[in-house]
Amino acid sequence: MNWEKLSTPKIHGGMGFKDLFAFNLAMLGKQGWKFITEPDSLVARNFKARYFPSASYLTATVGHNPIYIWRSIMGARFIVREGARWSIGSGATIPILIEPWLPNGEFIGNDIPGAHFVHNFIVNSLMNLYDKSWNEQVVRQVFSDDIANKILHTPLIFQVD
After folding, report:
1. What is the number of domains present in the chain?
2. Which of 3, 21, 36, 97 is buried most deeply by CB count within 10 Å?
3. Which of 83, 98, 113 is the last residue of a domain?
């Protein structure tokens, strides 16, 4: 039998075999997701120390002479990146540029006018920290109207400490 027939679900007359390539990518993506959500785990700390000590998994590079599993996990990063979205709590660790923190997973690219002004800034520099709201005056001063509107419509998560 051909693979298409073998991988068709049993209820549709096939054998129900899984697509092993897709399954492998899902498992590698899951490991990458754990690097983000469980940064204090032993595996995450070891990989971070070796491959992305001053970056996050989503911004890391493959590096020089990596082990096979790291290359594989990095090969599945596109899955994690497509599904990952920041929720803005304090905004203290999220860079303004390149990270998907706007609604619908959008991000502000390096190619916008004035990007060099906010290159090393984090999201909480656009906020009023005393009342946990967006500083509309700063946002409208720095960004174009369309980007400013997206920022101002991004919900802020109130955390209970």
Report:
1. 2
2. 97
3. 83
Sign of CA dihedral 104, 109, 111, 112: positive
Residue 156: strand, helix, or coil: strand
Residue-level pLDDT at 100 = 85
State the Cα–Cα distance between residues 23 and 36, nearest whole angstrom: 20
Query: In this structure, what DSSP letter does residue 80 have?
Result: H
The reported pLDDT for the residue numbered 78 is 92
How many Å apart are CA 11 and CA 146, to the nearest integer? 48
Mean pLDDT on 37-55: 94
Q: State the CB neighbour count (10 A cutoff) for residue 123.
A: 23
Distance CA 18, CA 106 (A): 32
